[in-house]
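Allow me, if you will, to draw on your knowledge of protein folds for a short while. I have a record of one protein: its chain in single-letter code and its fold written as discrete structure tokens. I should value your view on which stretches of the chain appear to form regular backbone elements. Thank you for your consideration; the sequence and its tokens are set out here:
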Amino acid sequence: MKECTGHERIKEYSEAGILCWSGNDDEAHDSRHYHGGHGVISVTSNILPAVMRRLMDTEDAELAAKTLPFMNWMFDEPNPIALNTLMAMTGMSSPVFRAPYWPYSLEKR
């Protein structure tokens, strides 16, 4: 099951024998390694797949802390605004947006 309400809920499910994946990129490392989670359903992994894989496979609090500012940027606006903006900025996709999901402002980019 995907859980987005935090570590305690993941821990409860884990203790009940229910496999649970974090839906919060910024909490996924700790949920996986300290609260019984099994992984993450991640937006960030679309841009940093190897980093997210390492965060799930290896207890690495330093890497988790280093990626947190990027994850915070990714969720500064509702998903998928940041992901679409970043993919357009890097040429990974055509810059096609429609209301209400406009690209990040130039300042945020």
About this structure: The chain has two domains: 2-68, 76-109. DSSP finds five helices and three strands in the chain. The radius of gyration is 15 Å.
